[in-house]
Amino acid sequence: MNERRALGWLALGAVAAILWLARPFATGLFLGALMAFIVYPLYDRLARLTGRPTAVSVLTVLATATIIVGTVVEFGSLFLARAVVLAMNTPARSSTSSARWDVRPWPARW
């Protein structure tokens, strides 16, 4: 019984160590596993239909990579466009005459 308890504690320690090592990659691991569970039925159906599992797996990987890269590029483009608009609408800090940069309390401005 002591050996069984020791193995249980060692297994728990191993799981804790694996989780600690995977912590920096947790989001990627989670999203990768989620995508695998979502895409597998499509891959399985296409592999049985065509009879070419290798070609279908390459096609599936390329399609998911295209979706991921497209999403990252679109997010970057949107972020950059909004940053440019924000920079264009923000007055230059060198012009102190602007009322936006007047830091006195509002009764003192009168």
Task: Tell me which oligomeric state these chains represent.
Answer: single chain
What portion of residues is helical?
Answer: over 70%
- Characterize the biggest β-sheet: none
Give the total of beta strands. Answer: 0
Count of helical segments? 3
- The radius of gyration computed from the alpha-carbon positions, rounded to a whole number of angstroms, is 28 Å
Would you list the SSEs in sequence order as H and E? HHH
Q: Span from first to last CA?
A: 84 Å
Rough shape?
Answer: flat
User: What's the mean pLDDT score?
Assistant: 85
What portion of residues belong to β-strands? under 5%
Structural class: mainly alpha
Uncertain segments of ≥5 residues (pLDDT<50)?
none
